[in-house]
Amino acid sequence: MKRSRLYVLTILLVSIGLQLHSQTFKNELILTSDFEDGKMGNWGARGTEKVEVTTEIAKSGKYSLKISERSKTWNGPIHVLTEKPVPEDTYIVTAWIYYKEGPAQSGFVMSVERSFQNEKQDHSYMNVASFQVERGEWTQVSAEYNVPKDPTQKTIWFYFELPYKEDNAVTANDKINFYIDDVRVEKMDPAAKPKIELAIPSLYESMAKWFSVGASVEPEDVEPSTQKAQLMIKHFDTIVAGNAHKMDSVQPKEGQFDWNRADKIIDFAEMTGMRIRWHTLLWHSQVPAWMFQDPKDPNKTVSKDLLNQRLKNHIQTIVRRYKGRVESYDVVNEVLSDNGGFRTGSEGSKWYQILGPEYIENAFRWAREADPNAQLVINDYNLESSVRKRQDMYNLIKDLKQKKVPIDAVGLQMHVSINAPSIQEIRETINLFASLGVNVIITELDVSIYHNPSESKKPITNDILLWQAQRYKDLFNLFKEAANKKQLDTVVVWGLTDDGSWLNNFPVPGRTNAPLLFDKQLKAKPAFWAIVDPKKVPGIKQ
Ligand code: XIL
Fold first, then answer.
1. Residue nearest ligand 1's atom 17 by CA
2. I need a surface site. Which of 29, 199, 327, 438 has the fewest CB within 10 A?
3. Domain extent for 401
4. Cα of 242 to ligand 1 centre, how many Å?
């Protein structure tokens, strides 16, 4: 049958129409709370704090919700998100937060609580997003929450709180009154959810001749069959936990190891055949408070002997459990000072303060005892930009090697900027450590679009993304050169997508960064193309 022109045209128009239609997404509005009816609706308190509607201040209209008489960091307003959770639904919560008395700025956190069909099961709590709010300024915060794939969950609530501290560490700054207003919750149109680009080259396959490429993830990123997990599988062959393998996550209470979050990442890696790096067995940050407390009196500092026992137990429990499975461990992280020598107590290291510098060699020896074959790494930052810190690291590794301490590699975190340090400085750093006979690993690569830590927020323009692309290209050229010299075999980026980067709101609150290879839509950025197929990026220099 010969098709009439009209028929063809109709088909054409219908299909254009369908395409247009499929691009107009409709989020479902779940909740708006502006409190203008003078009532608090279904908002409630999490503890004994007071939650009430007030006319003291408002973002819009006359009313807001006031939270006062807070005694714990987690005291704050809570509301049901859904009583019928559907796995993989995405909720978008926006709200305004204000406080008038307290520190010049304060962190706030939006978290979710989940109950389960089995009423006896403990509720689960998760921090979804953190924000910085300045005193006396209404600040808009927003967060996206993906409902986990868990058929046993029942009700999900969302709430606002301050960053968690144990009760005995809470100060006046953690107990401030605050206000929320104009809260809006939407459920994202499933058609609007970003999908990974299937028809592009794989990053790790493109680099396979030279080195493995890894990324840091949170357990939520690797829920099997989610798009982020697919992104991870397509482009990376090494995995590291952004937070889930740190001390406070793995051993929140003395002797009670919680493998739940840790294993989500390990299991995913084993299922998909990725190499696993562990970050980190020891750090001065993200350590649970009990670690340094005397068991009889939390106000007293733990004895040297007991702290050594605790450290050995922490290290060996982990390394024994994952023997033969985790290939490489950041045994110690950031043990050097920016001002020369070891990081001291006044720079946050209770390890150094209580144990003295020997804790470093002990940590390596204990790790080796538990797994004779794992790669043991000392990890730090700014070794490229600070000649002094670089030299300190050189001397330390040399000294450790002389003492026969089992150390295999140095990790260069490589949190660099678009403009510095220079490729030559990085090359000299890699050469210097390689000359000691240790491997070099790039452990936490990201390229900030800001020139220095304090630069204020700026728009992320195409020009900046192209500049960043050139920078990534130059860095990867150098890594290939080092790989060709057998100095390096692994490059890990610190995060999957720009929106999840630790450099958002840090170190400047309210500042957005875009330091990674993929954007929020899971789309490859110019930086990705510059390293994988530079022809695709206008003006890139080889
Ligand atoms: C960061 C994480 O990415 C953040 O989510 C967390 O809030 C703080 O720690 N150097 C390191 C990493 O060794 O552990 C840090 O990770 C980033 C700097």
1. 502
2. 199
3. 203-536
4. 6
